[in-house]
Structure prediction request, 300 residues.
Amino acid sequence: MDAYPDLPPSAVQGVAPPHRVNATAEPVWVRRSLIAVALLFMGLFLFVPLATVFIEAFKKGLGVYWAAISDPDALSALKLTLIAALIAVPLNLVFGVAAAWTIAKFEFRGKSVLLTLIDLPFSVSPVISGLIYVLVFGLQGWLGESLRDHDLKVIFAVPGIVLATVFVTFPFVARELIPLMQVQGLEQEEAARVLGASGWQIFSRVTLPNIRWALLYGVILCNARAMGEFGAVSVVSGHIRGETNTLPLHIEILYNEYQFAAAFAVASLLAVLALVTLVLKYAVEQRVKAQMRSASSDPA
Prediction:
C-alpha cells in the first residue's frame, strides 16, 4: 500500500508492488562467457608471452642465462637504463606536483591549454618525439652548430636519452595527482592559511600527506615507462653498443643477431622489473582508491 500513497486502498488491491531491478543481473551463462573471454584474452596476450620469455631465457641452462645478463654490454645497458630513470623520474615528480598544484588550486587563463600540453606525449608517437630532438639538437639541427662549437653532445649520447625519457614520461605523475587534488578542494589549505601557516608549511603538512599515495602511484608508473621506453630512445641513442644502448635496445640487437637465448635472458630482467612494478602499482592503487573515497565522502 505504501508504494501508492496517493491512491485509495481499493484502487491498488491486487496490484503487485514495484520491485527494484538490478541492471547488472545478467544470466549466469552470460557472466561466465564474459569471464571466459576475458581470461582467454589475458592468457593469449599476457600470460603466454610472459611465460615464453622465462622459458626461452632458461632454455639453454643457467650458465647461458648468467653469461647473457653478466655480459659487459648488458650491464652497461642496465646501468644506462637506471641512470635515465633516476634522472627522469625525479624531474617528472617535481613537474607533476607543480602542475597538479597549479591546475587544481588556481584558476587562470590558459588552464585548458596546460592540461592539453600535459597530455601531449600520450597523443604523439615516441618516434616522432625522438625525431623532434634530433631536429633540435642534431648536427644539422637548430642548435647543432652551437653545441658542436662548445663540444657538447646531446644526440647519440646520454643527455639525448634522458631528454627523450623525460618527454615520454612527464604526464604520469601530474595525471595521477590532478583528479585527487581537485576532489580534495581548497578547504584544508585555506584553513591552514587562516591559522598563519606559510606556503611551505601548507604544502608539507597539509597537501603532501593527502596526496602521498597518488604521488607514489604516479612515480611507479613513470618509472615503469622510463625503463621500458623504446621508440624515442631508439631514435636519439644511435644504438652504440656498450655506450648508448638501454635494455630494450640491447634486447633488440641481440635478437636481430639471432642470439635468442641472450635476448630472452635480458628481457627477463625487464619482465621481473615489470612484475615488481605491477605488485607495487596494485598495492598503491588500493590506497589511492581508499583516499579518493575518503575525500569524496568528507562533508567538509
